[in-house]
Design brief:
Radius of gyration: 24 Å
Number of strands: 5
Structural class: mainly alpha
Number of helices: 20
CATH architecture of the largest domain: Up-down Bundle
Distance between the termini: 36 Å
CATH class of the largest domain: Mainly Alpha
Number of domains: 2
Strand order of the largest sheet: 3-4-5
């Protein structure tokens, strides 16, 4: 059993220092502002991920590496989240949320202005540093809100995510129809500034403090190890999975991740609390979070690509139009035969705003109601019940997608609505599970570990989608009679997929959901109702007695 690192606790308030006398209006104003501010993370994914096909042409030669638009963002968030959680215990939750908001604004400006691929990724790194805001917001709610409001407030964070899933794609679709993809990042810049001002003016700071060190060495080792593994997953299809260079990345990643454990054992205040990780409740919650995040992220990245994949008829018309533009007579171009290496029977052929209307709005709409409902059920029945319902929705959506994949674009709305039910429940219940499992003195650390598990799941899911798409590339062949006029790798240029690839991705969603559901079933503390953190008070270690009130 790893030795628990020594800690010194210091607080400017007792464990029940919150807003018991606050009016309901003030409580919900605080929650509303915090939810709006936490939406910066949702905006970065829901606005940018579906727009990848529009961003790619601005960076010629990037090819499959365009997936790093999302991968580097999630990887940065994975490492930054636990650091942010620990820093919030050290210097204050509101203060660290404010710092993250400033970095988000700077990152949005960089991505909006640059024409350089490395600089663009640097901007995404700065944006990714804000991914821990949601997790810190959970701890802030626990510290300052009356307990009876905590489960509902966490559910409202999920409601905000649902609203973001509805509004963001519609907004980004409109912007991309009338302006360039850079307008997405200008809007995020303005949104970040506006919500940052509201946070500073209206949300109180938590007075709970927990003195510790930031484990920068552990963060570096973890980030480097994960980055090398993700490079292997993202590029192994192109370099060769067994090529010496590819295996070097794999081996380097595994070695660094292996070193991460002894580094954490020796750290005075580790990035991941190995003692806390030994708690079955915490470890089980992290497992549920990781596998649930894999299911959500594969779906969220793959389905917009599927809806925006042009139909065979659209691609054929485009090839003929390009031939005419190149000087081929119209009558001759009409005789061109266009074939594909895989089926496109699933393709939606929609614009981004069409994707929003036919899929994302339905998903966000059901999530909008499922989040608060799941939080309400968790507080009155058990946390496990609504979470299992959510995973059942994930599985049902994947099965429906597999069954209806070639039956027209209407199925995108149906499966989106079903998946949204699970989306709302998952994001409402998993942070509550962590809150109930970890003692208050480690709330910031546990929140960081929670975000770490979720963002690692997202990073691995994004790299996996890229690898699966490239394993079966979509190639368009153009012929005129017996003569071949050439072929185009549509996967290399636009990340387009085949029907077989789409089916494999849905099987991955289903498999990850089954594993997450199994982990949920064995979580004993999930069988109880949510208490807003009161149940975890009994876990306080003896040194908590040293906490004094000012």
């Amino acid at each position: 059993m790893p030795k628990e690192p020594e800690r010194s606790l210091e607080s400017h308030a007792g464990p029940d220092d919150r807003l018991p006398e606050a009016s309901r209006r003030r409580v919900f104003l605080i929650v509303a502002v915090t939810v709006l501010f936490a939406e910066t993370g949702v905006l970065q994914f829901t606005m940018v991920s579906p727009a990848v096909l529009r961003i790619a042409p601005s960076f010629p030669g990037v090819g499959a590496d365009i997936s790093w638009v999302n991968t580097v963002f999630a990887l940065t968030g994975a490492v930054a989240a636990p650091l942010l959680g620990k820093a919030s215990d050290l210097w204050g939750k509101k203060r660290m949320m404010t710092v993250s908001g400033v970095l988000f604004v700077i990152g949005s400006l960089v991505t909006a202005l640059t024409a350089s691929w490395p600089a663009f990724l640097a901007g995404r790194v700065l944006q990714g540093l804000s991914l821990g805001i949601g997790a810190v917001a959970y701890g802030l709610f626990r510290d300052i809100l009356p307990r009876r409001y905590v489960p509902t407030a966490i559910g409202m964070l999920t409601t905000g995510s649902g609203a973001g899933v509805i509004a963001a794609p519609l907004l980004s679709g409109y912007l991309l129809d009338h302006y360039s993809w850079r307008s997405l990042f200008w809007v995020m810049t303005l949104y970040g500034i506006a919500t940052l001002v509201l946070l500073v003016l209206l949300v109180p700071e938590s007075n709970h403090r927990f003195r510790q060190h930031l484990d920068l060495l552990g963060a570096f080792v973890l980030a480097a190890g994960l980055a090398l593994l993700l490079v292997y997953l993202s590029n192994g299809h192109n370099w060769g999975w067994s090529a010496l260079g590819s295996l070097a990345y794999l081996a380097g990643g595994l070695v660094l991740l292996g070193l991460f454990v002894p580094v954490e054992r020796r750290a005075p205040s580790p990035l991941i609390d190995l003692h806390l990780l030994g708690d079955r409740r915490v470890l089980g919650t992290l497992a549920v979070t990781f596998w649930g995040s894999v299911a959500v992220s594969v779906w969220a990245y793959a389905v917009p690509l599927m809806t925006q994949t042009p139909t065979a008829a659209q691609l054929t018309a485009g090839a003929r139009a390009q031939a005419v533009a190149s000087g081929l007579p119209s009558a001759t171009a009409a005789l061109l035969h266009v074939s594909f290496s895989g089926s496109l029977a699933f393709a939606g052929g929609l614009s981004l705003i069409g994707c929003a209307v036919h899929q994302m709005v339905w998903q966000g709409g059901t999530a909008l109601f499922a989040g608060p409902a799941a939080g309400w059920l968790a507080g009155r029945r058990s946390m496990r019940f609504p979470l299992l319902l959510g995973f059942a929705a994930f599985a049902s959506a994947a099965v429906l997608m597999l069954a209806l994949l070639t039956h027209g674009i209407w199925f995108f709305a149906l499966t989106g609505a079903v998946f949204g039910l699970g989306f709302g429940a998952y994001y409402a219940i998993t942070p509550t599970l962590m809150m109930e499992a970890a003692p208050p003195r480690l709330q910031g650390i546990s929140a960081g570990m929670f975000s770490l598990a979720a963002n690692i799941g997202q990073s691995i899911a994004t790299a996996t989608v890229t690898a699966v798409i490239w394993a079966d590339p979509l190639v368009m062949k153009v012929t005129l009679g017996p003569k071949s006029l050439g072929q185009v790798n549509l996967t290399a240029q636009y990340s387009l997929m085949t029907l077989r690839t789409a089916q494999i991705l849905m099987w991955i969603v289903l498999g990850a959901t089954v594993v997450a559901c199994t982990c949920t079933l064995v979580l004993r503390h999930a069988r109880a109702a949510a208490t807003g953190g009161a149940a975890s008070e009994e876990q306080r270690a003896p040194e908590q007695a040293g906490v004094v009130a000012a």
